[in-house]
Automatic annotation (TrEMBL), chain A:
The keyword Nucleotide-binding applies. It comes from Nocardiopsis eucommiae. The keyword Glycoprotein does not apply. Belongs to the ABC transporter superfamily. Keywords: ATP-binding, Nucleotide-binding, Transport. GO terms for molecular function: ATP binding; ATP hydrolysis activity; ATPase-coupled transmembrane transporter activity. One of its GO terms (cellular component) is ATP-binding cassette (ABC) transporter complex. SMART domains: AAA (SM00382). Pfam families: ABC_tran. This is ABC transporter ATP-binding protein. Residues 2-228 form the ABC transporter domain. InterPro entries: AAA+_ATPase (IPR003593), ABC_transporter-like_ATP-bd (IPR003439), ABC_transporter-like_CS (IPR017871), ABC_transpr_CbiO/EcfA_su (IPR015856), ECF_ABC_transporter_ATP-bd (IPR050095), P-loop_NTPase (IPR027417). The lineage of its organism: Bacteria, Bacillati, Actinomycetota, Actinomycetes, Streptosporangiales.
Automatic annotation (TrEMBL), chain B:
Pfam families: CbiQ. It is a multi-pass membrane protein. CDD domains: EcfT. This is Energy-coupling factor transporter transmembrane protein EcfT. PANTHER family: PROTEIN ABCI12, CHLOROPLASTIC (PTHR33514:SF13). GO terms for cellular component: plasma membrane. The lineage of its organism: Bacteria, Bacillati, Actinomycetota, Actinomycetes, Streptosporangiales. Keywords: Membrane, Transmembrane, Transmembrane helix. Signal peptide: none annotated. It is found in: Membrane.
C-alpha cells in the first residue's frame, strides 16, 4: 500500500503540499483539483520523482527517500505529454529500454516487448519513430513502455490533457482494463464515475476524500465559490 | 522529418549485416579515402555511395535528402577551396564528405539503435576500469539520436509562433525560444528517465 505521512513540500518558498497524510490502497483512485492545487507535486512524490521536504512516502517496507529504485520499479509513472516520455527512436526500442535494468536476457526481453506491443495495438508501428505517432498512440506507447516492466501501481499525471475525445476514450478504456492499481490525476471528470475513491486537492491539502459523485460535486461547488469570490 | 534518417525496416543485404562490421567498413572506407587523397577516387566513391542505396534496398530519395541537407556546406567548402586553394582539392573534400555522410546514413537506416547501443556498450566495457559506465555511454548515444527530431520540432514550433505573430526575417530571434524549449524538453526527458528507472544512478529532484 502507498502511504503518505505528514508530507509537505515547497518550491522556492511557495508551499505546494501541506501535511498530506493518506493511505492509497484502492484499485482505482482519482485525484482532481484546480491548477496549482498541488496535484502534480503529489503525483511526483508517489514514485520518488519529488522528495518531500518533510514527511514520508512509502510503499510497504520501502520509502522513496532511501529506496527510490525499489519504489520506482513498483510504481510506474505516465506523464501528460507522452512525447517527453519517449526516449528511444523507434516504438519497439522505447518499450525495450525500460527492461534493460531488469537484465532479463534477449529472449525474455523480446517476448515481453512483442506481448505488450500486441496488447496495446502497436505491433504494426514497432519500427516507426515514436515521435511521429498520433497523440493517442504516443500515450499508448508511454503506457506500454511503463507497463512492460510490470509495476504494481500506475500513477498517471493528466494523461488525457493533450488528447482529443476519441483518444481520451481509448486511454480511458486501457486504464480501465488494467490489472494494476491506478492513481489517476486528472481534470477530466468524465473519467471518474467507475473509480473506487476520488480525492479533491485544494491549496496543497486533501480537501475531500470519498466516492466519485460526492467528490465531483464538492469540487464543482469549490470552483463555483472561487468564481463567485 | 529530419534529413538524417533513423532505422527503416527492411530485408536488404545491409539490414542482414550486424552493426559491428558495418561500422568497421565505414571506418575502413573513411581511412582509405583520406589516405588516397585523390579527387577522382573520392568522386568514384561518391558515385558508388549513391548507387549503393538502391542496391541495398534503400530508396534513392533518401540519398538525395542527405545531399539536399549537405549542399550549403559542400558549396561553402568548394568555394573556399576554389578561391584560396586548388579546385581539385575542393572537389576531393566535397566528394569525400558527401560519400562518407551518405554511407554513414545508410548504416543508420539499416541498423536498429538497439544494435548500436549493444555494440557501443561492448566497446565501452574496457573503459569501466577508468570509471566510465558503458550503460550510460550507450544511453547518451541513444538520447543523441532521439534529440534530432526534438530539435527540429522545437525549431518548427518557434518559427510557427514567430510567423503567427506576423513577423518575418531575422531568424536569429528564434534562437532564444528554441533554446528555452530544448531546455524544457531536456528537463522532461531527464524526469522521464528517472521515472522509468532507466538511469538508476540519477539523483531525484529535491527542489
Amino acid at each position: 500500500m502507498l502511504r503518505l505521512a505528514g508530507v509537505s513540500h515547497a518550491y522556492d518558498g511557495r508551499t505546494v503540499l501541506r501535511d498530506v497524510t493518506l493511505d492509497l490502497a484502492e484499485h482505482r483512485i482519482g485525484v482532481i483539483g484546480a491548477n496549482g492545487s498541488g496535484k502534480s507535486t503529489l503525483a511526483r512524490t508517489l514514485n520518488g520523482l519529488v522528495l518531500p521536504d518533510t514527511g514520508r512516502v512509502s510503499l510497504g517496507e520501502w520509502d522513496t527517500r532511501r529506496h527510490a529504485k525499489q519504489v520506482r520499479r513498483r510504481v510506474g509513472f505516465v506523464f501528460s505529454d507522452a512525447a517527453n516520455q519517449i526516449i528511444m527512436p523507434t516504438v519497439a526500442e522505447d518499450v525495450e529500454i525500460g527492461l534493460r535494468s531488469l537484465r532479463l536476457g534477449r529472449e525474455e526481453t523480446a517476448r515481453r516487448v512483442d506481448e505488450v506491443l500486441e496488447r496495446y495495438g502497436l505491433s504494426d508501428h514497432r519500427d516507426h519513430p515514436g515521435h511521429l505517432l498520433s497523440g493517442g498512440q504516443k500515450q499508448l506507447l508511454a503506457l506500454a513502455s511503463v507497463l512492460v516492466t510490470g509495476p504494481e501501481i500506475l500513477v498517471c499525471d493528466e494523461p488525457t490533457t493533450l488528447l482529443d475525445l476519441r483518444n481520451t476514450r481509448m486511454v480511458h478504456r486501457t486504464l480501465a482494463g488494467l490489472d494494476q492499481r491506478v492513481v489517476l490525476f486528472t481534470h477530466d471528470l468524465d473519467l471518474l464515475p467507475d473509480f473506487d475513491r476520488v480525492l479533491v486537492m485544494a491549496e496543497g491539502r486533501v480537501a475531500f476524500d470519498g466516492a466519485p459523485d460526492d467528490a465531483v460535486s464538492f469540487y464543482t461547488k469549490l470552483m463555483d465559490q472561487a468564481d463567485g469570490a | 522529418m529530419s534529413a538524417i534518417g533513423l532505422y527503416v525496416a527492411g530485408t536488404g543485404p545491409l539490414h542482414r549485416v550486424s552493426a559491428g562490421p558495418k561500422l568497421l567498413g565505414l571506418l575502413v572506407v573513411g581511412v582509405a579515402l583520406v589516405a588516397a587523397a585523390d579527387p577522382w577516387v573520392s568522386l568514384g566513391a561518391l558515385v558508388a555511395s549513391l548507387l549503393a542505396y538502391p542496391l541495398v534496398g534503400l530508396h534513392p530519395r533518401r540519398a538525395l535528402g542527405v545531399l539536399r541537407a549537405l549542399w550549403p556546406f559542400l558549396l561553402a567548402i568548394g568555394a573556399f577551396q576554389a578561391l584560396f586553394g586548388a579546385w581539385e582539392e575542393g572537389l576531393r573534400l566535397c566528394a569525400q564528405l558527401a560519400s562518407l555522410v551518405l554511407l554513414a546514413n545508410a548504416v543508420t537506416l539499416t541498423t536498429r539503435v538497439r544494435e548500436m547501443l549493444d555494440l557501443f556498450e561492448r566497446l565501452a566495457r574496457p573503459l569501466r576500469h577508468v570509471g566510465v559506465n558503458p550503460d550510460r555511454v550507450a544511453l547518451v548515444l541513444a538520447l543523441t539520436v532521439r534529440s534530432i527530431p526534438m530539435v527540429a520540432s522545437a525549431w518548427r514550433a518557434a518559427r510557427e509562433g514567430y510567423r503567427a505573430r506576423g513577423l518575418s526575417g531575422r531568424p536569429h530571434l528564434l534562437v532564444v525560444p528554441v533554446i528555452v524549449q530544448l531546455l524544457r524538453m531536456a528537463d522532461a526527458t531527464g524526469e522521464a528517465l528517472v521515472a522509468r528507472g532507466i538511469d538508476e544512478d540519477t539523483r531525484v529532484r529535491v527542489d
